């Protein structure tokens, strides 16, 4: 895998689904003929749309965890919350930038690398309890009611790639990230079965992908929840981003776009690092982790695990090699 | 294979492949994965010079909770467990409003929390007792082990109840949603079953609010700028500035700090003294300029009637 993409040249591959949606956009073909291609009308609504999906109260995605990073020593500010996925009972895969929030906030016009990121995190896997419904509702079907949430936490140490970098412009906007993966080694094992495998192929346009995360679920622009949500999306584009400085890093920058369907999910703050699964007759496959989103409230971006398997394996090896 | 298929770095932009075969699976509801096809060498893929076809993605940051400081301090010690979440929709979506238990079956909240705005022909908006929800749900929250600065284990219980707004309740808003007038912004929710211990019921204050008095506001705050966290009850101290108008039962209060936080709608305002806390007001709707609350001592007669009605076991209850 690694060598295959080493020499990928600065290019973007763009694969768009032709008949996904609404407004026609004219695209000029090589031959000069105008093709009417229908693509989703991007960025029509600027507001953050209601994040769709539904709460995972049935523990359908038990490997998806909440990550609260420690404050980086010497930095003040709030560390923030992200999502992640257990790849082994004592290893969590997430996004590297999740460990670097106070640093990213203050890094105007500079870059953040792994030295200014948290050296410790808490990994939390909430468990839910339910209210017993009274007998009178026996006839009608009433949804289960939440009666409690426990947030058991396990401490862990994050391992970030040496080449990881976040560029922040003068205005404080994050411009780009490189090698945005992290593996967290936990102090003890989480009693959970890893119920998915890594994929043997890249995601395909039009494919359904389930996104899971603890993101800041905004409803009516006001509410946030530290509850695990999941939602279905369709992949609408795959592109390989260039890294002019170092073409070898291209392999870590595959972005996969998807649009939510009516009931689908949309990545919000806090969903970063959460898993995206392919689910079919062969089982469940971890195809990517949530990376960014488009402010149209419809499009989210993930980083491909298939494409970055070499990097993830390297991080796992580094985490395993550490002697406590 | 792939590297051979790609044009050199001089080619600046991108290659657009249209996958004609995916149309069916994209348009349909059911997923039908189509294989990913990478462009082959010399393929007749379409090239466009504009990158705009791919939407500009915003890099997601971790969920930053630093703004929560404006909502106050988290009530993880269960000091104000009488403060509840009030919802007309799904309680899991987070509190639409706050409220306070004043009896085992009675929750006091703001009228505008449970009644729907109606447009007037004058482009103004009115919220009054004629458009209230019949029912609302009330969710109590008690905290257990504290895990992080923002997270503690929690036990919640959701109750259904009947809504009754104060008979004089009326809010008038201009087209910019600025408050023009406000009368008795109060409502009760009468729960179908009484709450279970260890939840406390807030005692009512006997004496009227005084200007310059320091009150404790509590609630499951959320505002446009500061999103609430599900089940996170906060409290903070605010100073009453003055009565909004003579004999109106409405007081204005200010918040310490740079940010005006309006997220406690319907939540309680407590007076604290050496013996504990007592309920003096309910946070009203906030305009962008000032924060206001509705006095409970001022509306005490109505509150007492509602408390008495809720204890009556006959149906219908006799008029007091």
If you had to describe this structure to a student in words, what would you say it looks like?
The complex is a heterodimer of chains A (324) and B (320). Chain A has 324 residues and is mainly beta. Chain A has a single domain, classed as Thrombin, subunit H (Beta Barrel), CATH 2.40.10.120. Chain A is built from three helices and 22 strands. Chain A has a six-stranded antiparallel barrel. In chain A, strands 5-6-7-15-12-9 form a six-stranded antiparallel barrel. The longest helix of chain A is centred in the last third of the chain and has 13 residues. The N terminus of chain A is likely disordered. Chain B is globular. Chain B contains four helices and 21 strands. With 320 residues, chain B is mainly beta. Chain B has one domain: Trypsin-like serine proteases (Thrombin, subunit H, Beta Barrel), CATH 2.40.10. Chain B has a six-stranded antiparallel barrel. In chain B, strands 5-6-7-14-11-10 form a six-stranded antiparallel β-barrel. Chain B is 8% helix and 37% strand. Chain B starts with a helix and ends in a 9-residue tail after the last helix. The chains are: A mainly beta (324), B mainly beta (320). Chains A and B meet through strand 1, strand 2, helix 2, strand 11 and strand 14 of A and strand 1, helix 2, strand 2, strand 3 and strand 11 of B.
């Amino acid at each position: 895998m690694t060598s295959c993409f080493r020499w990928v040249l600065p290019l973007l591959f763009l694969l768009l689904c032709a008949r996904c949606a609404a407004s026609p956009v004219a695209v000029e073909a090589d031959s000069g003929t105008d093709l009417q291609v229908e693509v989703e009308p991007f960025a029509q609504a600027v507001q953050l749309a209601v994040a769709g999906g539904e709460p995972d109260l049935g523990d359908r995605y038990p490997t998806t965890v909440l990550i609260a990073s420690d404050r980086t020593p010497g930095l003040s500010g709030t560390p923030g919350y992200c999502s992640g996925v257990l790849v082994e009972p004592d290893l969590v895969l997430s996004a590297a930038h999740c460990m670097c929030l106070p640093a990213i906030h203050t890094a105007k016009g500079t870059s953040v690398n792994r030295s200014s990121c948290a050296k410790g995190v808490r990994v939390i896997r909430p468990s839910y309890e339910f209210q017993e419904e009274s007998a009178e509702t026996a006839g009608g079907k009433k949804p289960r009611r939440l009666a409690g949430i426990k947030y058991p936490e396990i401490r862990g140490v994050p391992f970030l790639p040496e080449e990881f970098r976040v560029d922040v412009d003068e205005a404080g906007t994050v411009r780009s990230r490189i090698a945005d993966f992290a593996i967290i080694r936990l102090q003890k094992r989480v009693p959970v079965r890893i119920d998915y495998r890594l994929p043997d192929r890249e995601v395909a346009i039009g494919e359904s992908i389930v996104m899971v995360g603890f993101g800041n679920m905004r409803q009516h622009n006001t509410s946030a929840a530290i509850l695990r949500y999941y939602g279905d999306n369709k992949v609408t584009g795959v592109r390989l981003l260039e890294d002019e400085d170092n073409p070898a890093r291209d392999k870590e920058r595959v972005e996969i776009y998807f649009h939510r369907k009516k009931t689908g999910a949309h990545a919000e703050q806090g969903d970063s690092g959460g898993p995206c699964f392919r689910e079919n007759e062969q089982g469940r496959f971890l195809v990517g982790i949530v990376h960014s989103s488009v402010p149209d409230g419809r499009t989210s971006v993930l980083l491909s695990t298939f494409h970055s398997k070499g990097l993830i394996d390297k991080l796992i090896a580094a985490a395993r090699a550490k002697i406590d | 294979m792939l590297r051979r298929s790609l044009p050199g770095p001089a080619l600046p932009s991108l290659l657009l492949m249209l996958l004609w075969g995916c149309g069916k699976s994209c348009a349909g509801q059911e997923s039908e994965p189509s294989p990913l096809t990478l462009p082959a060498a010399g393929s007749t893929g379409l090239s466009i010079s504009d990158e705009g076809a791919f939407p500009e993605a915003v890099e997601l940051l971790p969920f930053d909770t630093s703004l929560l400081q404006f909502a106050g301090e988290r009530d993880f010690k269960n000091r104000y467990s009488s403060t509840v979440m009030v919802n007309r929709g799904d309680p899991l979506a987070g509190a639409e409003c706050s409220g306070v238990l004043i009896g085992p079956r009675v929750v006091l909240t703001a009228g505008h929390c449970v009644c729907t705005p109606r447009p007037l022909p004058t482009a103004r908006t009115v919220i009054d007792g004629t458009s209230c929800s019949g029912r609302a749900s009330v969710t109590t929250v008690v905290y257990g082990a504290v895990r992080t600065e923002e997270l503690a284990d929690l036990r919640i219980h959701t109750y259904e109840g009947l809504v009754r707004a104060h008979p004089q309740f009326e809010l008038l808003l201009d087209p910019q949603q600025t408050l023009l007038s406000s009368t008795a912004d109060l409502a009760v929710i009468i729960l179908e079953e009484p709450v279970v211990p260890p939840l406390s019921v807030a005692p009512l204050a006997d004496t009227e609010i005084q200007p310059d008095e320091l009150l404790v506001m509590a609630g499951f705050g959320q505002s446009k700028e500061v999103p609430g966290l599900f089940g996170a009850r906060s409290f903070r101290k605010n100073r009453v500035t003055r009565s909004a108008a003579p004999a109106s039962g409405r007081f204005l209060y200010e918040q310490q700090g740079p940010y005006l936080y309006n997220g406690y709608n319907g939540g309680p305002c407590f007076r604290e003294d050496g013996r504990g806390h007592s309920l003096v007001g309910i946070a009203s709707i906030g305009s962008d300029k000032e924060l206001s609350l509705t006095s409970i001592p001022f509306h005490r007669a109505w509150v007492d009637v509602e408390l008495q009605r809720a204890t009556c076991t006959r149906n219908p209850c006799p008029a007091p």
